[in-house]
Write a structure and sequence with these properties.
mainly beta; about 375 residues; Jelly Rolls; Rossmann fold; 5-stranded mixed beta sheet; 9-stranded antiparallel beta sheet; single chain
Length: about 375
């Protein structure tokens, strides 16, 4: 906590682009959509493909799992069905036999993944599947996006045109985390996707939702958001959460992320904010996959906290070692000049093919 910037203390444990260029070794990576190490596993795979001599040397498998991969078909309030549990040992062994013993190459695409919502396995040539469209969904409102009863909307048709939205972030009363990834269970938090409507009644949570979808949409890949905001403190956080809203109103979280404003240009040299000035802050969420079925809606929540999933920003430059709390009055902009959006990787039909994994015994599949 004494080293809250990227200094020499952290350098030995970092992995940068130059580090991946030091080796060229085939890799088989396995992770889960609800796993705390998902972001790092995906980053390692993408970097290995980029710097390696042969992209086909690298395989990424992502299931509907926590850190204990291939163990549970039910995570949070989502049941992935018996097909969630596969014969992962057989997949690993066939790949190792091919790489190390000269056996025939197994029927294993470079990217194998489970699509929650469809509850199906798919295979693709790359992560994300070739042909995936990075689609901007823009924030808009009539100036009252606070809570799920507000007027916040999300649309891919173009930048918002309505007035900005404001909320008050008090670190003494942060937005509570309703579910977490693997590590959160150590603190007693539920895991995976759960109904998030309990926090969407708070005035410090801005809610932006699409209209009901006329047809289903698959989203698979990295997720990010660009949020334009102004505040009256020298530092604050912007948190973003992506949710699947069911026809009955349930809003299940899929992925989340947060960014600290003082690191907007560099983790090495933090910079304070100027009160009232508008800044653009990119928020990287965890990668995800989800099929938003027809009749469902896509939603994002924007706030400044998700605690204890992420440490609170005390709204000044010394949040990690200080104890003083300041209250932030923050405005989120969405206009042609300051077009706040979430970037979703939309996978068109046919970009990824159905893939049938080897299945374990019935007793293992029903765990």
């Amino acid at each position: 906590m004494d080293h809250d910037s990227l200094d020499a203390f952290w350098e030995p444990s970092g992995m940068g682009a130059a580090d991946y260029e030091r080796f060229d070794i085939p890799s088989l990576s396995v992770t889960g959509w609800y796993e705390g190490q998902l972001k790092g596993a995906v980053r390692n795979h993408v970097a290995a493909v980029k710097t390696g001599s042969n992209p086909d040397d690298h395989v990424l498998i992502v299931g509907p799992w926590l850190h204990g991969v291939n163990r549970n078909r039910v995570v949070g309030e989502r049941d992935a069905g018996p097909q969630a549990i596969i014969d992962l040992d057989a997949i690993r062994d066939s790949w190792m036999d091919y790489r190390m013993l000269g056996a025939p190459r197994p029927d294993l695409p470079n990217f194998v993944y489970f699509v929650p919502g469809l509850n199906e396995w798919k295979g693709a040539q790359a992560f994300p599947p070739v042909g995936t469209r990075s689609t901007k969904y823009y924030l808009d409102s009539g100036g009252h996006a606070n809570t799920m009863a507000g007027d916040g909307t999300l649309t891919s048709s173009g930048p918002g045109r309505g007035p900005s939205d404001s909320f008050v972030y008090d670190p003494g009363n942060p937005v509570p985390t309703l579910s977490s990834r693997t590590s959160g269970a150590r603190g007693g938090l539920p895991q995976g996707s759960v109904d998030n409507r309990a926090v969407e009644t708070r005035q410090d949570v801005l809610v932006f939702t699409t209209a009901e979808l006329d047809e289903g949409i698959e989203v698979t890949g990295r997720i990010s958001a660009m949020i334009y905001f102004a505040t009256d403190v020298e530092d604050t956080d912007i948190s973003v959460k992506l949710l699947d809203v069911f026809p009955d109103g349930r809003a299940q979280n899929l992925t989340e992320g947060i960014a600290r404003a003082k690191y907007r240009h560099s983790y090495t040299a933090p910079e304070p904010l100027e009160a009232g000035e508008v800044y653009g802050l990119e928020v990287e969420l965890f990668p995800t996959s989800n099929y938003f079925a027809a009749g469902h809606r896509i939603r994002i929540e924007v706030s400044s906290s998700d605690f204890p999933n992420f440490a609170r920003n005390l709204n000044h430059m010394d949040s990690d070692t200080g104890s003083t709390i300041r209250v932030a009055h923050t405005t989120v902009h969405h206009s042609s000049e300051y077009a706040s959006y979430v970037l979703l990787p939309v996978v068109p039909a046919g970009a990824a093919k159905p893939w049938t994994p080897p299945t374990p015994s019935a007793s293992e599949a029903n765990r």
